[in-house]
Design brief:
5-stranded mixed sheet, 356 residues, Spore Coat Polysaccharide Biosynthesis Protein SpsA, Chain A, 60s Ribosomal Protein L30, Chain: A
């Protein structure tokens, strides 16, 4: 256990929170598989793989079990390095755009000595690095490097070095240090549990006018009405405002930047697609949505009879607990365009937490 949960779960949970990860192989000793299976998260992407006699054999088993295409990117990570953060995954994937492999690394800053009998020799450290994991590879290259079952390597970069693979080194982090000795638990727990939680907040606002139609869609819920909302997509003002709030919290522009109304692909599109995309972008940037508060501003239709259905739809799409989703309605006391029953406005606030 480390800061309240098993060491392996820290890294596994980080991978599971990343929508770019298609499949995950958790490599275990054969006598641990049944125990871990009973407590592992339920996720279709996760498979438990029996390890081998050494690290190289274990990685080989995982690659074979995952069955990636040659051009897929595969990341190999030590569970004993629990400090994995989403931004490291992003840096590795960026590095893979021009290289065959990539790994996080830290420069060697201590003086290095080699012992020779009773004397010491200074080693030049200028081009030496402490290489960490995850290490990223084109799956075809890694599979080729592991094809010779007689080889055993200290890490997976060593396996591809003989093939002349070009490797990128991205910024490492002390949080990625490996638990090796007993006192490493105390040091790592201080890093994992002692870090102050970091939050960001974003706000969004959206307006749509009425036009003839059978009803409106608000927060993913259709409400029969004497008019519909005019817009290029389904004009769901509540979810549009929340989408902008999330994008604003992570400084990624607004909904129009990602889904411009001039693009016919988004004609009559379900706004849930926009909201899911904003959540995915936030996760890739290292932020997790933790709470949202939406206010719908209109004289008509009546929101209260549909509010709980809206909360449930929003909670399901955002993967938030129901008590983390607030939806309210108000009027403008007959003032302005909403008071004249010409349309609906919505404002939203979103809270995001830094993924550790």
């Amino acid at each position: 256990m480390l800061a309240g949960k098993p060491v392996y779960r820290w890294s596994l949970d980080t991978f599971l929170s990343d929508s770019r990860v298609d499949r995950i192989g958790l490599v275990l000793p054969s006598d641990h598989i049944e125990t871990i299976a009973a407590s592992a998260p339920e996720d279709d992407r996760l498979m438990l793989v029996e390890g081998g006699s050494d690290r190289t054999a274990s990685v080989r088993n995982a690659v074979e079990a995952l069955g990636p295409a040659a051009d897929d990117i595969i990341l190999v990570h030590d569970a004993a390095r629990p400090g994995l953060q989403t931004q490291t995954i992003t840096a590795l994937l960026d590095g893979m755009k021009a290289y065959d492999a990539a790994a996080p690394a830290l420069p060697v800053i201590d003086a290095l000595k080699r012992r020779a009998d009773e004397t010491l020799q200074t080693v030049d450290r200028s081009d030496l690095y402490r290489v960490q994991t995850p290490q990223a590879f084109k799956a075809g290259i890694l599979a080729s490097a592991l094809a010779d079952k007689s080889g055993s390597f200290v890490d997976d970069l060593e396996a591809v070095e003989a093939l002349g693979a070009r490797a990128a080194l991205v910024d490492g982090n002390e949080r990625l240090s490996k638990i090796t000795f007993a006192n490493d638990f105390e040091r790592m727990e201080a890093l994992m549990a002692g870090q102050q939680a970091e939050f960001r907040f974003g706000t969004g606002f959206d307006v749509h006018a009425f036009e003839p139609g059978p009803g409106v869609t608000l927060c993913g819920t259709f409400i029969e009405h004497s008019a519909r909302l005019k817009g290029h997509s389904d004009a769901d003002a509540g979810w549009h405002a929340l989408t902008d709030a999330i994008l604003g919290a992570v400084s990624l522009g607004d909904i129009g930047d990602h889904f411009p109304p001039s693009d016919d692909r988004w004609k009559d599109a379900d706004s849930g697609m926009f909201l899911s995309h904003a959540i995915m972008l936030a996760r890739e940037a290292g932020w997790q949505l933790t709470h949202c508060d939406i206010t719908l501003i209109c004289e008509t239709p009546k929101i209260k009879p549909h509010r709980e259905a809206m909360r449930k739809r929003t909670a399901k799409l955002t993967e938030l607990e129901l008590d983390a989703v607030s939806i309210k309605a108000t009027t403008t006391e007959g003032l302005g365009f909403t008071g004249r029953r010409e349309g609906i406005a919505a404002q939203a606030a979103a809270t995001l937490r830094k993924i550790i």
